[in-house]
Design brief:
By secondary structure, the protein is α+β, with helices and mostly antiparallel strands. Helix content is 33%, strand content 37%. The chain contains six helices and eleven strands. Helix 4 crosses helix 6. The radius of gyration is 22 Å and the shape is elongated. It starts with a strand and ends in a 5-residue tail after the last strand.
């Protein structure tokens, strides 16, 4: 179980032709790092890779937080890259994540089938001479539940990411983040009934109505624009936007973010 505590903003990169993000959080009270292929979420309905493989190493030289030292980290990356090259030849698969936690580093693959994979990996690890204890786990996961529930960032982490990036841009512009100001929000819905129910929720929470209307041709054409005076600090805005997003989602809607003016000295 992930605790809603994010230690760092996302690191965005591309690797192996996919879109990779990295986030840091806490699982069961211990710090961990998850590198995740965000693009795999968009392909779930188009791929048939029903088996999940977790494969990696247990290492002994690690920090008090369970992360490898620099020497082991480089070694683990090379071992991971080497195994990926072998897996790419051996099986129809896609790597979707890498989890570093509690002195372990595990790569997650989705496979078309699991026939012979365990035997292949046992032989592979027997020959690798890394001196590290291997980890192998294969499970049937046809709906990619593990990817969606564990590897992929949850709503809190996703909102933290978006807020972190926007607030950092405000700081770069010289904004005084701890100064209160009017912050505007937008949400979109399929029907006016769902929008109006959302309107009542946010007005009860002290927001002010800015505009309510209809955009023809939009996927969710009924919009609601509202505001409130708040301080755009990272943790506060994350708690706020997570609630606003969950409330919109419960009504089949989409909370589409916030913006505010820049306040300089």
């Amino acid at each position: 179980m992930r605790v809603f505590l994010l230690i760092s903003c996302f690191i965005i990169s591309t690797c192996l032709g996919a879109q990779w993000d990295q986030y840091f959080a806490q699982w069961e009270g211990k710090s961990g790092s998850m590198l995740v292929d965000m693009g795999y979420m968009d392909s779930l309905h188009h791929v048939e890779l029903p088996y999940l493989l977790a494969v990696g190493y247990q290492f002994t030289t690690c920090s008090t937080k369970g992360f490898p030292d620099s020497m082991n980290y480089e070694k683990l990356i090379k071992l991971s890259d080497k195994l990926y090259n072998y897996m790419d030849i051996q099986a129809t698969c896609q790597i979707v994540g890498t989890f570093t936690y509690d002195c372990k580093r595990v790569d997650y693959y989705y496979l078309k089938d699991s026939i012979g994979i365990r035997s292949f990996l046992n032989n592979y690890f027997y020959r690798d001479n890394s001196g590290l204890e291997p980890i192998i786990s294969i499970s049937h996961d046809p709906n990619s539940k593990y990817y969606k529930d564990f590897i992929y960032p949850d709503v809190y982490i996703s909102e933290y990411k978006a807020n972190c990036e926007f607030i950092q841009e405000l700081i770069n512009q010289g904004d005084q983040i701890k100064k209160g100001r009017r912050i505007e929000h937008w949400a979109y819905f399929d029907t006016h009934l769902e929008r109006d129910r959302y309107r009542l929720i946010v007005l009860e929470r002290g927001f002010n109505e800015e505009e309510s209307g209809f955009h023809r041709g939009y996927k969710r054409p009924y919009f609601y624009h509202f505001s409130r005076r708040d301080k755009p600090t990272r943790d506060y805005m994350t708690e706020l936007t997570v609630n606003l997003q969950n409330e919109a989602k419960a009504l089949n809607g989409l909370y589409d973010g916030w913006e505010c003016e820049i306040i300089r000295k």
